[in-house]
Amino acid sequence: MASAPSPARVSIYDAAAANRVRTAVLLVSFVFIVVVLAYFVGEYLAGGSGVAIVPIAFLIAVGSAWVSYFAGDKLILAQSRARELGPDEEKVLRDITETLAVGLGVPAPRLYVIEDSAPNAFATGRDPAHASLVVTRGLLQKMDRTELEGVLAHELSHVGNRDIRVMLLVTVLVGTVALIADMAWRAMFWGGGSRGRDRDRGGGGAILAIVALVLLVISPIIAQLIQLAVSRQREYLADASGALLTRYPPGLASALRKIAADTEVLEAANKATASLYIANPLKDAPAFFDHLFDTHPPIEERIRRLEAMG
Amino acid sequence: MEAVVIAVVVVAVVLFFVSTYNRLVTLRQRVKEAWADIDVQLKRRHDLIPNLVETVKGYATHESTVFQNVTQARAAAVAAGATASPQERAQAENVLTGALRSVFAVAENYPQLQAVQEFKDLSENLTATEDKIAFARRFYNGNVRDYNTSLQTFPTNLFADAFGFKPEEYFELAEAGEREAPQVKF
Q1: Are residues A49 and A109 in the same domain?
Q2: pLDDT tens-digit series, residues A161-176
Q3: CA A195 – CA A183 distance, rounded (Å)
Q4: Do A3 and B137 make contact, defined as CB atoms within 8 angstroms?
């Protein structure tokens, strides 16, 4: 019965509080990284205008963080070619979603569908009041009711835990930082040879020292950001709180098994958005770099843990 | 030096009381919000019942006691909704659930009724609403448990009462076949 204490009850409020801290860390580090990168690029590659470039970089960083926060979900939905469902479409999906949302004390999210036969799902948005839940046509076709409940409960747990905001920002911001870092890296090798010689501080040794310094400053922060993204614990937690919500762990376990066995690639997913999904939608053997952004623990381990809940 | 020590101790004690007080207020507020969720679903259920009774009445003309029972039970549940405690409300809702079951049992005897779209829609809506009540109840009881546990654990239990924090009641409905909570291990 509900009044009996269940072991290790995971409060969505605790997870939400931890995620608020993560969001703050994420936003501050993003602005910091962009400003530091811009300073080094300006100071050593554009002829000593590092200080002048800082306020501009700061504005750009804050601006793009702002856009990511308020419009990142729209970007992701558009990129995934998700279409919003009308109020009379997919009654069963809507019923289950609304019921489970009541059980978590969050408003029912807006529902989207991707017309693709690969079964998968994700949730995004900046908070539960602005959350969107996306399922593929394949999920609706291939899952029975208890499996669909399991998947939706997992996604709604991400909504209730405020994981969606962290995952949204990680997807958009870390993507941006990686892009800028990549550009700076190339610029240093390309620009370092020709321009560096003209300057008194130039020369190959100095350039290498600068590169080393930048990496020294940036890499722990990047590592921290990836750590935020690569929270396997977050997926286990969403599996567990989803199972608590439906009171039926085998539903999600069976859904994960079906998704794992399905070999179809979800066309609308890409490397940046792949980590949002309930299971890797790309189906390719992940390269080393992808592993860094791989937020999902092995599916067999997730199934094993769900079955252990009994 | 002594003054500093005393000041530090006083500040620490004040901070402790402030944070405990605020935490209890937050937890109590969550209970209230969860209760509002239950209230919404119960009202929805109450709104659906008159239509259902009217629809079934049109076909099952000789079952007036069943309809009287359900109408009375509904009125009692609505009245309980205005003032009563969670426990009293749960009792009224349980009576209503029993009365509703007999309406559906009666409806089983009328095959033409089963084919009426309005009846189908109404019973689907009622089932969906009852699912939501079950989930809202679970969420509410979870929040009550968190709040009550905080009240009853040391040292909060020593002064929670003095600050006006009272334990909240669980909302228990008689339900057959409720799924057991799975064991979650980390």
Answers
A1: no
A2: 888 988 888 877 766 6
A3: 17
A4: no
Q: Is A247 in contact with B182 (Cβ distance < 8 A)?
A: yes
Q: How far is B172 from chain A (nearest CA, A)?
A: 8
> According to CATH, what is the number of the domain B2-159?
1.20.1440.20
**Mutation to test the B interface, candidates A93, A102, A239, most B Cβ within 10 Å:** A102
Q: Do A123 and A51 share a structural domain?
A: no
Residues of A with Cβ-Cβ distance to B186 under 8 angstroms: 8, 236, 240
A292 part of a folded domain: yes
Q: Which of A89, A155, A264, A300 is catalytic?
A: A155
- Respond yes or no on whether the N-terminal peptide bond of residue B155 is cis (omega within 30° of 0): yes
Shared domain for A242 and A159, answered yes or no, is yes
Predicted local distance difference test score (pLDDT) of residue A39: 80
ipTM greater than 0.85: no
Who wins on pLDDT, A30 or B132? B132
CA nearest to B36 within chain A: A105
Asked if A240's CB is within 8 angstroms of B30's CB, the reply is: no
CB A80 within 8 A of CB A115: no
Instruction: Work out the burial of residue A300: count CB atoms within 10 Å of its CB; fewer than 13 is exposed, 13-18 middle, 19 or more buried.
Output: exposed
For B26, the closest chain A residue by CA position comes to: A13
8 Å CB contact between A171 and A72: yes
Three-state SS at A285: coil
CATH code at position A120: 3.30.2010.10
- My answer on whether A172 and A60 are in the same domain is yes
Q: Nearest CA of chain A to the CA of B114: how many Å?
A: 20
For residue A2, is it within any domain? no
In angstroms, how far apart are the furthest CA atoms of chain A?
77
Query: Nearest by CB to A105, which of B37, B149, B180?
Result: B37
Residue of A nearest to B128 (CA): A95
- The strand pairing partners of A124, in sequence order, are A132
Query: What is the domain extent for residue A275?
Result: 81-164+232-309
Partners of A133 in beta bridges: A111, A123
pTM of the model: 0.78
d(CA A289, CA A116): 27
In A181-210, the residues whose Cβ lies within 8 Å of chain B are: none
